[in-house]
Amino acid sequence: MKKSKRWQKEEAILEAVLFAMGTSVEITKLAEVLEEKPETVRVMLSDMKSRYESEGRGITLLELEDAVQLCTRPEAYEYLVRIAKMPKKFALTDTLLETLSIIAYKQPITRLEIERIRGVSSGHAVNRLVEFNLVAEVGRLDAPGRPLLFGTTEEFLRCFGVRSLSDLPEMSAVQIEEFRQQAEAELQMNI
Predict the structure, then answer these.
(1) For residue 144, which phi and psi values (nearest 5 degrees)?
(2) Phi, psi of 122 (to 5 degrees)
(3) What is the pairing mode between strands 135-140 and 67-72?
(4) Could you tell me if 152 and 135 are in contact, meaning their C-beta atoms sit under 8 angstroms apart?
(5) Alpha-carbon dihedral angle through residues 174, 178, 180, 186, given to the nearest 10 degrees
(6) How far apart, in whole angstroms, are the C-alpha atoms of residue 63 and residue 43?
(7) Is 72 helix (H, G, I), strand (E, B) or coil?
(8) I need a labelling partner for 183 at 20 to 30 A (CA). Which of 1, 17, 80, 164 fits?
(9) C-beta separation of 15 from 41 below 8 A
(10) pLDDT 10s digits, 110-157
């Protein structure tokens, strides 16, 4: 059976909506989106499910009462588990390393304190470090607004090969003075 272009377009829309939602969606809502009758949407979904099965695709449609969800076929679960267990690789940019070192040496620390030290907004850097599980929220500061406090995680220790924070290298007085002079020079350039 050859499908009309409209039918193909509507199936593509259904597939995109179900993929993007990631959870079950009521058939009546799908019908509203397509401006079709629920019965028509049910036929489209049934056709999609049959095609997924006949083509041996890695996805299927799961029917749940009056809703439907795009899911992985059970036969693919073991491969999902394998990929989920693989170590995650991430690259730490200079900005992320700078932010991470501030958190490591000054923890627990608020985002505002990090930004004062760096002199620039650090929200994105902190969020990326949280995503990488190198930094986590460790509490709230007992101050107005109760800002979040950040600290390093066990994953940070593993990644950097240290057993505890006390194993982090200490900076000499000379290094601290050099950093202070560099920071002052940068501030002068920005004025």
Answers:
(1) -55, 135
(2) -125, 10
(3) unpaired
(4) yes
(5) 180
(6) 13
(7) strand
(8) 164
(9) no
(10) 999 999 988 889 999 999 999 999 999 999 999 898 999 999 999 999
DSSP readout, 127-171? HHHHHTTSEEEEEE-SSTT--EEEEE-HHHHHHHT-SSGGGSPPP
Burial degree of 68 (CB within 10 A; 0-12, 13-18, 19+): buried
Could you tell me the two tokens for 145?
């607004």
Q: Which two tokens stand for residue 103?
A: 């958190």
Number of neighbours of residue 97 by Cβ within 10 angstroms: 12
Which residue type sits at 78? E
Rounded Cα distance, 25 and 43, in Å: 16
Alpha helices in 22-166 (DSSP H): 27-34, 38-54, 77-85, 94-106, 111-118, 123-131, 154-160
Structure-token pair, residue 86: 């693989």
For residue 151, which of 167, 165, 135 has the smallest C-alpha distance?
Answer: 135
Angle among Cα 119, 121, 124 to the nearest 5 degrees reads 140
The chain-wide mean pLDDT, for the chain, equals: 89
